[in-house]
Amino acid sequence: MAGGIEFSSGKFKELVLLLAHKSADDPLISRVKLNKLLYRADFEAFRLLGQSITGATYLRGEHGPIAAELPRAEEELGRRGLLSWRIREAGPHTQKIPVAAEQPDESQFSEAELAIIDAALAELVELGGKGAREWSHRVSVGWNEVEDEQEIPYHSAFFSTKPIPKADIERARELALARGWAERRP
């Protein structure tokens, strides 16, 4: 259980298969990118729907957020013949490419969850492993706030790395003054 969030092993494995299946034509998909897609889908669902899709535990890894449950899910899916890995040489690195053996069961996901999953795929479509890693370092407040191998809290999905617009700061200042939470500066 991640921070009081219930983990669904079956739904997590189905999400792995769904992302692998939907990424079949993505020439940039890799295990690194798969981790970022899992992370984005779960954290966006938590932010937008109030609960993650799978309840997986995400840890701060060197290459960005990683799903702690992914190795076990890969092993189980592989043993059942539902997921395999194609190996691709990419310069000095070897990439593992997830390959779903059959159509995943999309009925396990709500329409809102499927929309979030599709949005995550669209957001990262142009990124390879290195780009997805750099993206996660830039946008994941939680990844930036914890130490290596520590759990990234789901509530960090509510925080942004984007600067607060000046108009929002001014509006907050006006509200604080109007409610007596702050005093006017000379």
Task: Describe the model.
It is a single chain. The chain is 46% helix and 13% strand. The protein has 186 residues and is of the alpha+beta class. The protein has one domain. A two-stranded antiparallel ribbon has the order 1-2. It has a two-stranded antiparallel ribbon with strand order 3-4. Helix 2 packs parallel to helix 5. The protein is elongated, with a radius of gyration of 19 Å. The termini are far apart. The model has no long low-confidence stretch (mean pLDDT 92).
Write the layout of secondary structure elements.
Blueprint: H1 9-22, H2 31-49, E1 58-61, E2 64-67, H3 70-79, E3 83-90, E4 93-100, H4 111-124, H5 129-139, H6 141-145, H7 166-178
Antiparallel strand pairs: 1-2, 3-4
Helix pairs in contact: 1-3, 2-4, 2-5
